Amino acid sequence: MARELVYGPTFEEMLHPDRIDPRIRARALAAHEADPLDPINLYNITWKDEHNRVRYMVLPRELTGVDAEIVVLIARHFATGSHKVGATYSCCIERQVRDEIVPGRDRLIWPSTGNYGIGGAYVGPRMNYECLILLPELMSQERFEKIHWYGAEYIKTPGCESNVKEIYDKANELAGEPNTVIVNQFSEFGNYRFHYFVTGHAMLEVFDELRQAGGAQRLAAYVSAMGSGGTIAAGDLLRQQDASVRIVGLEPVQCPTLYSNGFGGHDIQGIGDKHATWIHNTDNMDALMCIDEWDSKKGLQLLAEPPGQKVLERAGIAADVVRQMGQDFGISTICNILGAIKTAKFYRLGRGDLIFTIATDGVDRYHSVLEQMNQQSGPMDETEAAIRFESIYQRQGLDYIREGTRHEHDCWANLKYYTWVEQQGKTVEELRRQREPEYWLEHQAKIPETDRLIRERRG
Asked: Average of pLDDT values for 335-361?
């Protein structure tokens, strides 16, 4: 049964929401809190607030222990509480404007290890699609609750964050059903394009704002866990603006796949691994660093719970800043921050240097994880909080780092073969083409055409 086609913003409008029709923009802003399930909220997919300013935080040096400015873009205020909703919308709208999917005819399957699945559960039903989310069974309970509330169904696949193959296997099983479309974040270039264009340009705006205000004068590095390979794509735009920008990817110590062809389970929810994703431009990665799962989880608990907040305030961090970090940061955010601290130390960056990273979601979807930690190890007191502050943030070490030599770039790119060519039907020819800069430029060049099609279809 045919359903109404729903269209949302262009890539340009996601970057510049002030260019949306003012009546639509006003309705979207009003619905953000009052009616979050209204499809008009698709126009709230942006890094910017109601005043058209990018939401970000310059981390206090009292926390990081380094002189370089570490700037975190805040994603908690996106429609689903995570920037992944931008990737899911981009993947969906790109297919719809090219008549590859039609609501009422096609069911969308969203393979995910967390926030992308939540984004698919949000975007799909708002655009009138029946949606099924594939998510590992050990992800936080809050994730499954959000998927259900947004109007999608889910299947729990075996394992944890790093059990991506099990998700693929289930997706391949379902792909044989009539009118079933797999929207795979790990290979869909809509994911890459959203972060390359929207996230990348948002960072440049913040850099210009801070520089003009007398802040850091050099854009030194961008640090991001690879995850699906989408978020780190913002680095491709930054590199085009300044060839000296260093791009640093992160993965867990407990599952060091690109670092050492390693494997294992981990709980830094949001950075799926055990493979190199198809849309990750590995040749643009200057270094790979591994972050400990427990540093990320305990580091979040330090920011989110009263004993840790008291320690941070005594260290000279303003109470309102401590509270904001405790709300706006999730587990993978702490991973990104620790990676940025490592980057500053490794490259000897100091005053005048700026490092960007991402707060992919907030603490709201990890309360069950924190409670589980308290049950397993006992509550964190102020003594334990002080130890964590010193050991996790102030003394983050320089272990588990590999620089992107020519040999490493060959290894990282070749790792794609085993997942994508042997298992997922990609060709060796395209894999080899990914080593050419023109391959990525071609994918970036599709953004204006998609915007034109969206405007035409909206009428």
From this structure: 97
DSSP 302-371: HHHSHHHHHHHHHTT--HHHHHHHHHH--HHHHHHHHHHHHHHHHTT--TTEEEEEEE-B-GGG-HHHHH
Residue 90 exposure: Cα atoms within 13 Å on the Cβ side: 30
Count CB neighbours of 156 within 10 A.
14
Helices and strands (DSSP H and E) totals, the chain:
22, 11
Note whether 219 and 232 are within 8 A (CB): no
Look at residue 138 and tell me whether its pLDDT is greater than 80: no
What domains, with CATH codes, occur in the chain? Answer: 56-80+192-403 (3.40.50.1100)
Task: Give the helix ranges, DSSP H, for 152-305.
Answer: 164-174, 189-193, 200-212, 234-241, 257-260, 293-304
- Please give the single-letter amino acid code of residue 260: S
Q: Rounded mean pLDDT of 399-423?
A: 96
Q: Which helix (H) or strand (E) element contains residue 85?
A: helix 84-97
As a whole number of angstroms, the distance between CA 58 and CA 278 comes to 32
> Would you say 46 and 17 are in contact if contact means Cβ atoms under 8 Å apart?
yes
pLDDT at 351 exceeding the cut of 70: yes
Strand partners, 403: 287
